[in-house]
Amino acid sequence: xxxxxxxxxxxxxxxxxxxxxxxxxxxxxxxxxxxxxxxxxxxxxxxxxxxxxxxxxxxxxxxxxxxxxxxxxxxxxxxxxxxxxxxxxxxxxxxxxxxxxxxxxxxxxxxxxxxxxxxxxxxxxxxxxxxxxxxxxxxxxxxxxxxxxxxxxxxxxxxxxxxxxxxxxxxxxxxxxxxxxxxxxxxxxxxxxxxxxxxxxxxxxxxxxxxxxxxxxxxxxxxxxxxxxxxxxxxxxxxxxxxxxxxxxxxxxxxxxxxxxxxxxxxxxxxxxxxxxxxxxxxxxxxxxxxxxxxxxxxxxxxxxxxxxxxxxxxxxxxxxxxxxxxxxxxxx
Length: 333
What we know:
The protein is an alpha+beta fold. The chain has 10 helices and 12 strands.
């Protein structure tokens, strides 16, 4: 799939004015940062970024259905690491439902079920993905037809990675990552992700980045032209040479054991290895699908990670995959 894979419509399956479904399910991908260039801390506490996002084919599914009047969002979650997912008002899916309802002056009474497959607290934007999926699913459930630019603005208010989860494909994120420019991708890239035993807090990683760079001149972040060219031409070896993550040093400082995972993947034949986003998931670019499975097998046998996942990029952004008149669909699963 070339380009962003998500242009024009946001993935709704019903036209405006059609009967509202009783439940809506949206699928949303994880992301990997092919490049994450980080500037110094701004006065507001954020950092300017040049963030080259790639959506990868690991997905959460978020199902929404009408909730009890006055009850607000009610969340449930199943899947790997579901116990680590907050089911209160801090969850980005719940926040997305409230933000959309407030925008349209309606009550956010909705049941939200997250079928979790993206690693939790793994630097792959799983929480952001759920926020984008819930926003799109609720917009469809409530028949609002919110314009795409307004949905993206709501995403940006929710978090820096949420707009890309809606967009998908590939994009350069600037500002704090929420200002997106879609990028062309000329082929399929094959990845292996090694999931660590415990998550890492993104704010903590940025704090460590600030500590490690204190007193030094942090240059303004900029996308690498060689990396953008490699994406555009679908050149995996060239992309491998250009992969970069300014947060990797901070993540390794907080979790030194990740060095052994990175080494195990490259020893197994990965073209390149890096920490994914703020970590602790590590990402390995492989030459092709067969090589990716070999690297995944070696990593799983190395004892340096909890589990491995294989996925390709780019992938489509948040998309409605089902709406139904069956109320039971709203319970997820």
